[in-house]
Specification:
Elements lengths: L3 E2 L2 E2 L1 H7 L2 E7 L1 H12 L2 E8 L3 H29 L4 H15 L19 H5 L1 H21 L4 H14 L17
Parallel strand pairs: 3-4
Antiparallel strand pairs: 1-3, 2-3
Helix pairs in contact: 6-7
Length: about 180
Amino acid sequence: MLFADAPVSGGAMGAEAGTLAILFGGSEAAFTAIEQPFRLMGSELVHCGPVGKGTAFKLARNMLHFISYTATDEALRLAEAASLSLQDLGRVVRHTDAITGGAGAVMHRDNARNLTEDDPWWDIFQLPLGLAGKDLGHALEMAERLGVDVPMARYAQANIGAALGYPTGYRAPDAKPDRVG
């Protein structure tokens, strides 16, 4: 008898389209036994490790998802206080996340240890780190001026370097993009 856990991600839309992400935890033998039937339901099948790892994977994925909802709420409240169109903001976020990869863009690394200067990601993340410092600073100033409480943004400003993998206390050089975009 083979045992496994295989939570899914992708919601009702993914289930209807057969494009779910299926997060499989179990032995290689169990994975081989279910792989083909599961591919009928999902387009992203990940063998996460032994039994229980599929669920752990799903919890980490959903933690990111629901924290992003909280951050989104702050952005929406700030935009509303600034008399901006929330529909336009949503459209721009979806558009630019499709280009840049959104939060998933920083998830190409294969570990969560601090970067070192010889790591290729060190240079890659310099621009986003500098831009985050500048843009979060301006957003926090605007939030204060408009009386909008944005604790997630304050946390992000204080921790963006660590979130990108830089050592504690590292500060990026001033953000100066070398190209428009």
